[in-house]
Design goal:
This protein is α+β, with helices and mostly antiparallel strands. It is built from five helices and eleven strands; from the N terminus they run ββββααββββαβββαα. Strand 10 and strand 11 form a beta hairpin.
């Protein structure tokens, strides 16, 4: 991490937001709000780990360092942003949860050292705990997984450890476009998936 000057606090944020740009499919009629949405986001994410949202807003600047890809809380909790990709049947483009994971201090420092190093994708996977509260029954906080470093300019990939959790099953088996719509509606309207 570059230091406090390079990081910013996000203030009050919505827990999930969609990304603009190429990460969208053709629109859909929302069964939750009844409106037609022009695009179906193929990438959703949270601007901060769940632990950041648990800290009173007036304490965040003092206790947290937050950038778009890294977060440190109380100098003892370390988080990185990654891509949890879910294959979509009949599409070359996956649905992506931009998700936060907690890592050890040593792995956080190592990832920071390699941030702009060519060949960093040969780094062994880091053991992680998912730290984004995604809209799935059973919750998603503290699901185990691995973080796979990618080439410079790409966020690391999150691969969940095998389990019977719905998120792992979707990551390993893939989902339909209709399921993408269900996920988007759940995330945007505050329901469980």
């Amino acid at each position: 991490m570059a230091g406090k000057g390079a990081l910013r606090s996000l203030g009050a944020q919505k827990p999930f937001s969609s990304l603009d740009g190429p990460h969208r499919m053709q629109g859909f009629h929302c069964s939750t709000c009844g409106q037609f949405h022009q695009d179906l986001p193929m990438c959703l994410g949270s601007p901060a780990p769940a632990a950041w949202f648990a800290i009173p807003e007036q304490e965040r600047e003092e206790r947290c360092l937050l950038s778009s890809d890294q977060c440190v809380i109380d100098d003892t909790h370390y988080f990185l942003m990654g891509r949890l990709e879910i294959p979509v049947h009949g599409s070359d483009e996956p649905f992506v949860w931009l998700s936060w994971v907690s890592v050890s201090e040593a792995n956080f420092k190592r990832a920071s050292e390699l941030w702009r190093t060519p060949g960093r994708e040969s780094e062994p996977p880091y053991f992680v705990w998912l730290q984004s509260a995604l809209p799935y029954s059973g919750g998603t906080l503290s699901l185990h997984g691995s973080l796979l470093t990618q080439p410079i300019g790409s966020r690391p990939l999150i691969v969940l450890e095998a389990s019977d959790h719905p998120l792992y099953l979707e990551q390993s088996r893939g989902i339909t476009r209709a399921r993408v719509q269900e996920i988007v509606e759940a995330a945007l309207h505050g329901r469980r998936g």
